[in-house]
Amino acid sequence: MTKMFPKFAASLAVCTALVSASVAADVIKIGVQAPITGQYASEGQSIDNGVRLIVDQFNAKGGILGKKIEVVSCDDQGTAQQAAICAKKLVNEGVKAVIGSYTSGATEAAQTTYFRAGILQTSDGTSDSLITHKYWTFFRNSFPNSAEAEYTAKYFVDGKKYKKIVVLSDYSSYSTDLADSVVKALKAKNGNIIYEGKIKSGTQNFTAALTKIKSMDPDVIYYSGYYTDGGLLRAQQIQLGIKADFVGGDSNDNPDFMKLAGGSAEGTFLINVPTPDILPYDIAKQFLVDYKAKYNMMPASIWSLMNIDGLRAVLNGMETTKSEDTKVIAAAMHKLKDFPGITGPVTFREDGERLGGGYMTYEVQADKSYKIVYK
Amino acid sequence: MSEYILEIKHVSKYFHGLVAINDLSMKVKKGQIYGIIGPNGAGKTTLFNCITGIYTPEEGQILWKGKEIKGTTPFKIAELGILRTFQTIRLFAEMSVAENIMSGRHIKSKQKWYNGIIHTPAYYKDEKENWEKVGELMDFFNLSEYATIPAGDLSYGIQRRIEMARALAAEPELLILDEPAAGLNENETLELTQTILKIQAMGVTIMMIEHDMEMVMSLTEYITVINFGARISAGLPAFVQDDPVVVEAYIGSDEEDEHE
Amino acid sequence: MMTKTSMIALVLLIFMGFFPMFVDSAWLAVGTTFLVFSVVAFSQDIILGRAGVFHMGHALFFGLGAYTTAILNVQFGWPILATWAPSVLIPMVCAFLLAGPIIHLKGDYLLVATIGFNIIFIQILENDVFGLTGGPNGIFGIDIVRLFGIQFASQTYMYYMAFILLGITLFIMRNLDKSKFGRAMFYINKDEIAAQSMGISIRYYKLYAFILGAGIAGAAGSMFSVQYSAVSPEAFNVTQSIMFFTIVLVGGSASLPGVLIGTFIMFVLPEVFREFATARYLVFGLAMILTMILRPRGIWPVKFGNIPSFLKKDVK
Amino acid sequence: MDIFLQQIVNGLTIGSLYALVALGYTMVYGVMRLINFAHGDLVALSAFVGLTVYTQIFGEGITSLVAVIAVFMFTAAIIAVVGVLLERLAYRPLRTAPRLSAVVSALGAGLVIQNAVMLIWGPNMKIFPSEIFPSTIWEIGGIVVTFTQVMILGISAMLMVTLFFFINRTKMGTAIRAVAIDQDAAKLMGINVNRIIMVIFIIGSALGAVAGLFIGAYYRGITFDMGWMYGLNAFVAAIMGGIGNIPGAMLGGLLLGLFNAMITGYISSQWAETFTFILLIVILVFRPTGILGETVAEKV
C-alpha cells in the first residue's frame, strides 16, 4: 500500500491538471443524458435534437457569458445501469448541467452522482420519488405523477363514478410510481379498487392476466405503463370480451397505441397533458417551426419540449446571475416565477418540483382522432 | 479376514432388461496376477466397471477385504486402493504427461481446502513430494523425455504406459488393467510384460483383461473365462487353455479376426 | 525463472498500474470497469474454464455481491468497508445452496438451470422482496469508501481499489492452478470418468469451483456498486451472464491472458466504438463467429505443462 | 370453471407456439448436440420478413386466404434458406471443435441476425395489420376463442403430427434418427450426414418461421429483440421435455404454456417466470434429462 502512494500522488496531480484545464477552457459544457438508442429511442433523439437546436441558437448569438456552449451527449438506453455510467462520464467531462433523462428510472439512477459533483440536472421524469432527496441540483421540468393521479382519481370517482376499478402497471419506475399514486389518490376519494397487478413489459401475451381480471367483472381497467403494452392489452381485452372501459395513462398517448389496438382502439380513454401541436404559446409555435426546419420532423412528444424548458431555465439562470457557479444558478432557478416556457409558465418549488399541470381526457374515435371528454 | 482381497459373489448386471453379467463369482488373492478372458462383448469390461463403481450391479456382492463395496461411488473405490486403466485409453489428452500422472497423486495429496486459495509451508512440502513421486514413475515407465508433451499427442504404446503410471501413482493395492496390450507391437508387449511383473513385485495385486493369449498365459496365475456374461471356465492358465468349452467359445466368435 | 506468459503479464500489470497517469478520468472509469469485469470473468473462468461446468448465470453472483453492499449500505447504513465481507460470503453460501441440487446435471441441462437461477434472481430484485431491493429501479446513492476520515471518492482511488482486487484475484488463480484443487478441476473438465477413477470427487470439486467463483464475483460486485453508486436489476441479467460466458470462451478458457483479452474485446472495444452505435453489435457477432472458426479454443488458448523444472530435465 | 377453461385455451395457444419453436432447438440438438442460440432470432426475423412480404407484395388490406398462405409459404422458405446458411457458415466449420466453441458461434450468429433486423427494420416496434385473419370470435359457454387462436392450434397440431410421421415413418426420418443416435455409424451406413443436417435446419427453421408469423398475427407488435424471449421459453420447453426428443419438445411446449397460464391466472403474474424455472429445476433434479429424455450411459 505504501508503495502505491507515489503513484497515487502522481496520477492525482495529472487528474487535477486535466480537470483544471477543462474548467479554464473557453466553453461551457451542457450534458444530455437520454435514451438515444433502445426502446425509447425516438424520445431520446428528440431531447438531443431539441437541446442542440437551442444551443445552436444561443451560439449563433455569441454564446453565453461570452463563451460558446458545447453539448456532450450520453446514451443511457433508458436503463438505470447505463444511466449510472453516463452520469460518471458526464461528470468527468466537466459539464455544468445535464438535461435528461426521459425515463424516471434512468434519471433517478444518475441523480446522486450529479448531486455529489454539484452539477445541475433537469428531467421530465414524472416519478414522485425523484424529488424525495431534495437535492439542490435537481429540477423537474414536467409535472409529477401525483398531479396526474389526482386528476385521474377525480375523473374516475367524480366524473365516471366507476364502482370496480382495476389498476395495472408494468415494472418500470415511472409506471409503478404512477400506479401507486393513482391507487393512493383513489383511496383518498374512497374509490373501490378491486385488483392491482403488474405485467411484464414486452411479454405480449396478457390473456392469462386479463382472464383473471374478467372473472372480477370490473368497470374500468386503468393502465399506467407504455403504449407498446397498452395497445396490446386493449386489443386482448376486447378479444376476451371484457366489457370494462380502458383508460391509459399519459404514456399510452402514441400513434402506435392505435395501430396495436387496431379496431379495438375506438372507445379507449387516454389521460395526458396537451399535445405539442395544441400548445397555445407563441414561443412554442416558434420552437416547433424551427425544429421542423432543422430536422424535418416533429418532436416525438411533449416530453422533449419539457426538457427544452429545463435547458432554457438553466441558461436563463446563467444569464441573469452572470455566473457559472451551479449553486448560484440553482438559487436563481428556485426563485423563478412564471418563466415563459414552451410548455407553459415555469415555476420551481424549493425541492425542484415544477408547479402546475393541466390534464385532460381524450376518447379515441372510430377514425382514431381524439375527442376531449373531461378537463 | 480371508486370504482373498477381492471377492465377487453371484453378481448380475442388466441393461434395459438384457443381462450383461450373469451370476458371476470369482476370488482374487492378494499379490496375484488374475486374468479375465473371453470373446468380445462377453461382459469383461462391464465387470470391471462394476468393481470400480461406474456401474452398480443389480444382484450379488462385491467384497473388498471382506467389506461390501457394491454401489460405492467410483472416487471412493479409488480411495480404497482400487485403480484402473481403460480399454479405450482415457487420458487427459490436452494436459502434459507429468500432469496426467499427477492426477494419480490426488488421493495421496494432503493439501487442505484453503490451499486452493493460499499456499502454506505444508502445501509446498506436499506438492514437492508428489511431483517427486511423479518423477520416479516417469523414470520407471521411461516417460521422462515426454514430461511436458500433451498426452494426446503421443503414440498409442506410450499412452498405455502413461495410463498405467497414472494408476500406479495412486499407490493402489489392486490394479485393474483393461486390455493393456491392445494396439501394442511385439517389442512393446514384451516390455509391458516385464513392467507388469515389476509392479507385482511391489506388492500390487493385478487383475487384467487381455486378448493376447501368449501374454496372459505367461503372466497370470489364475484365469476366469467369461462368455455371455457368465463364467464358463476357471482355473490355472494351463487348464483353461485346454478346456474344450473355452476353445468352443473362441472358435464360435470372430474374436481373432477383429484383432488383426 | 520466468515464462513468456508471466513476462507479458508483468508488463501488462505495470502498464495497468501506471494507466491512470496517462488518461483523463472518463477513460479511468472505463479502465476501472474493465478491471472489475476482468475479475468477474476470471471467477467465471474458474467454474467454466477450469471445472468445465456450463454455467450461464454468473451475473447472479456478481449481482448478489453488488446488492449486498448496496442494501447494507443504503438500507442499513453500514460503511462500505464493513459490507465487503458479507458481499463475498453471501454469494458463496448461495452458490452452495443453489448449485448443490443441480451439480449432477449434464452440460446443457445445467446450463439452462443456471440461466433459470439468474432469471429468478432478477425477478426477486424486480419484485422488491421485503422492500429491500428497490424494485426495477434498483438502489441509488451508495456511499464511497471511507477509512480513518479519508474519503476515497476520486476515480483514481476506485481504479486502484479495482486494480488491487484484480491482483488478489490473479494471486488466487495462480495458487489454485498450482494446487491439487485446480488440477482436480482440469481433470474433471477433460474426462469425468477418468477423473473419478483417480479418486476425484466430481461433486466436491465442482462445488468448490462454484463457491470460489461466486465469492470472487461477489467481491467484484461490491466494487461495481461503489464505482457507480447505483445498482439495478438489468446490470445482472442473463445477457450479462452470457457476456461473461462468451468472454471466457473467446479469450481462451483457463488462460489468464486469454480472459484478459476476452474482457478487453467484449467490454472495452464496444466502449471505444460507441460512435458506430448501431452497427457495432452486428460486427461483434460476426467477430464472435470468426474467432471461434479460426481459433476454436480462444484467442490465447491455455497451455498446459506447467510443471516443476526438475521434471523437465530429460525433455528434449 | 369457464375461467379455468379459458386459461387452458390461452395456455394451449402460447404453448403450441413454444412447441413449434422448441422443435427447432430439439432437432438441431438431437443431431449436432448444439444449442442453436440463434434460433429465437430466426423466429423474430421471420415475423419481420413476413410483414414485409405481406405489405410489399400483397399490399395492406388484403385478407384473401390464398395471399395469407402464400405469405406463410414464402416466408418459411426464406427463413429455411437463412437457417441453412447459418449452419453452413457458423456451425459446419466448428463440427469438430470443442462443443462450447459452437455455442459461442451460435450466440454470435444470434447477435448478427438480431442486429441485422434492427438495422433493416429499425429499432422501433413494427405492427402487423389486423386484417390478416378475420376477427371472428366464438363464444362457447363463456369461453372466448378467436379465429387466430383456432388457426394457431390447428396448424401447429397439423405440423407436429406431420413431423411425427415424417420422422417415424419415412426413409429420411429413419436416416435422421440414425444420425442422431450415432453420426459415425450412420456415415458408415452410407447416410450423407451433411444432407441430413441440412434437412434438419430446413425443417426447424421453417417451423420457427411459422411460429414467428403466428406471433406477429396474434400479438401484432413485433420488435427486433423479441426472439430472445420466445427463444428462451422454447428452449426451456425443449429441455423440460428432454432435449433431442421430438415428442418431448411438443410436450414441453404445451406444458410450459399451460403452466404459465395457470400460474398467471391463479397465483401471480409477477412471479410467473420464477415458478416456471422452479418447475424446470425440480423436473431436472428428479429427471436429469427431462421428462421424456433418456439417460444415455457413457461408454467406458
Order of helices and strands of chain A: HEHEHEHEEHEHEHEHEHEHHHEE
Which pair has the most extensive contact?
C-D, 42 and 47 residues
Supply the number of helical segments of chain A. Answer: 12
User: What name is given to the CATH topology of the largest domain in chain A?
Assistant: Rossmann fold
Quickly count the helices of chain B: 10
The multimeric state of the shown protein is heterotetramer
Instruction: Output the structural class of chain A.
Output: alpha/beta
Total beta strand runs of chain B: 10
CATH architectural designation of the largest domain in chain A = 3-Layer(aba) Sandwich
Helix content of chain A: 40-55%
Proportion of beta-strand residues of chain B:
15-25%
Beta fraction of chain A? 15-25%
The total beta strand count of chain A reads: 12
* CATH homology superfamily of the domain at 4-81 and 172-258 in chain B: P-loop containing nucleotide triphosphate hydrolases
N-to-C series of helices and strands of chain B:
EEEHEEHEHHHEHEHEEHHH
Number of domains of chain A: 2
Could you describe the 3D structure shown?
- The complex is a heterotetramer of chains A (375), B (260), C (316) and D (300).
- With 375 residues, chain A is α/β, with parallel strands linked by helices.
- Helices cover 46% and strands 16% of the residues of chain A.
- Chain A folds into two domains: 4-143 and 279-334, Rossmann fold (3-Layer(aba) Sandwich); 146-272 and 359-374, Rossmann fold.
- Chain A has helices at 4-24, 41-60, 80-93, 104-117, 145-160, 173-188, 207-214, 227-239, 255-261, 282-295, 302-321, 326-334; strands at residues 27-34, 68-75, 97-99, 120-123, 138-140, 165-169, 193-198, 220-223, 245-248, 269-272, 360-364, 370-374.
- In chain A, the strands form two sheets. Chain A has a seven-stranded mixed sheet, sandwiched between helices. Chain A has a five-stranded parallel sheet with strand order 2-1-3-4-5, sandwiched between helices.
- Chain B has a domain at 4-81 and 172-258: 3-Layer(aba) Sandwich (Rossmann fold), CATH 3.40.50.
- In chain B, 38% of the residues lie in helices and 24% in strands.
- In chain B, a hairpin with a 2-residue loop joins β1 and β2.
- In chain B, α3 packs parallel to α5 (156-169) and α4 (121-140) packs across α5.
- The longest helix of chain B has 20 residues, at 121-140.
- Residues 255-260 of chain B have low confidence and may be disordered.
- Chain C is built from twelve helices and four strands; from the N terminus they run αααααβββααααβααα.
- Chain C has a two-stranded antiparallel sheet with strand order 1-4.
- In chain C, α2 (25-50) packs antiparallel against α9 (202-228), α2 (25-50) crosses α10 and α3 (59-75) packs antiparallel against α4.
- Chain C has a domain at 29-237.
- By secondary structure, chain C is mostly helical.
- With 300 residues, chain D is mainly alpha-helical.
- Chain D has one domain (2-286): Orthogonal Bundle (ABC transporter involved in vitamin B12 uptake, BtuC).
- Helix content of chain D is 74%, strand content 4%.
- Chain D has helices at residues 2-32, 39-58, 65-91, 99-121, 147-169, 171-181, 183-188, 193-219, 226-241, 246-267, 272-286, and strands at residues 126-127, 137-140, 143-146, 221-222.
- In chain D, α1 (2-32) packs antiparallel against α8 (193-219).
- The longest helix of chain D has 31 residues, at 2-32.
- Classes of the chains: A alpha/beta (375), B alpha/beta (260), C mainly alpha (316), D mainly alpha (300).
